[in-house]
Amino acid sequence: MNRLLTRRSVLSASVATATAAALAACSNPSAPAGAATRILPTDPLIADFEARRIADGTTVTQQLTAAPFNTKITGKPVSTWGYNGSLNGPLIRAKTGDLLDVPVTNKLAEGTSVHWHGLALRNDADGVQGLTQEAIAAGTDYGYRFRLAHPGTYWYHSHFDMQRERALYGALIIEDPKEALAYDQEWVIILDDWLDGITGTPEEVVEELSMGMDMSGGSMEGMDHEGGGGMDMGMKHMLTGATSDYLGGDAGDVKIPVHLFNGKPAQE
């Protein structure tokens, strides 16, 4: 049977062909010149874009050392990981236009990275291992160096497995030199739900959560959240029956023994 070719069908076929060709070029390393290629951090295009960022500030340097350390929380000895031996990573303060230079030393027994949460920055400095960089291997150093373009309150943290559930995080404040308002007081507060070394480890919690999902076919809906009967299987970290008017119902699934305010329990 003959099919009438319309202008619409011809255009649709052309678009489909062009799309297929583009996809093939992206996946074909031997694609001809002009085809889509990866843009590398060292390419002139990146250098040109970076040169157009505001660059009228100074260089702000902050050394970060990721390492195990011992401390006390609510009087209990705790072994955990953090930056520069603290439950609260260094507060980094800079201004728009500054160049942030952060040498990182990894003294952990595994890889790590530092992600600059919420910042618009060059991709190779974003700190996501396996995507924008390789992990910083155990016993090695790495440097993050990028221009700060936007004022605001941000935070930085490890982007490697469960490391940010320990003390591998800190605050980053980028001030606006043209800020018109003046303030009498400023408080930078970091809140953290903490359990590492108190009731267990972050990895144990993830394992229990995974067990709950497996038992209910991919979610925790099949468990007895009211009475906790479905949780009575040695799952010491699970929270059952907790509600919150502020959260509109469920108050969470994990028991949190301590809430830290800038690295200290509320009682202190």
Structural write-up:
The chain is of the alpha+beta class and 268 residues long. Among the domains are: 59-178, Sandwich (Immunoglobulin-like), CATH 2.60.40; 202-265, no CATH class. It is 16% helix and 26% strand. It has helices at residues 7-27, 44-51, 202-215; strands spanning 59-61, 64-73, 76-83, 92-95, 99-106, 115-117, 141-147, 152-157, 169-175, 191-194, 243-244, 249-250, 258-261, 264-265. Strands 1, 2, 3, 5 and 7 form a 5-stranded mixed β-sheet that branches. The longest helix is centred in the N-terminal third of the chain and has 21 residues, at 7-27. The radius of gyration is 25 Å and the shape is globular. The protein starts with 6 loop residues before the first helix and ends with a strand.
Give the helix tally: 3
- Quickly name the level 1 CATH class of the domain at 59-178: Mainly Beta
CATH fold title of the domain at 59-178: Immunoglobulin-like
Oligomer: single chain
| Total number of strands | 14
Task: Please describe the biggest sheet, giving its number of strands, its sense, and whether it closes into a barrel.
Answer: 5 strands, mixed
Topology, pairings included?
Elements: H1 7-27, H2 44-51, E1 59-61, E2 64-73, E3 76-83, E4 92-95, E5 99-106, E6 115-117, E7 141-147, E8 152-157, E9 169-175, E10 191-194, H3 202-215, E11 243-244, E12 249-250, E13 258-261, E14 264-265
Parallel strand pairs: 1-5, 2-5, 4-9
Antiparallel strand pairs: 2-3, 5-7, 6-8, 8-9, 10-13, 11-12, 13-14
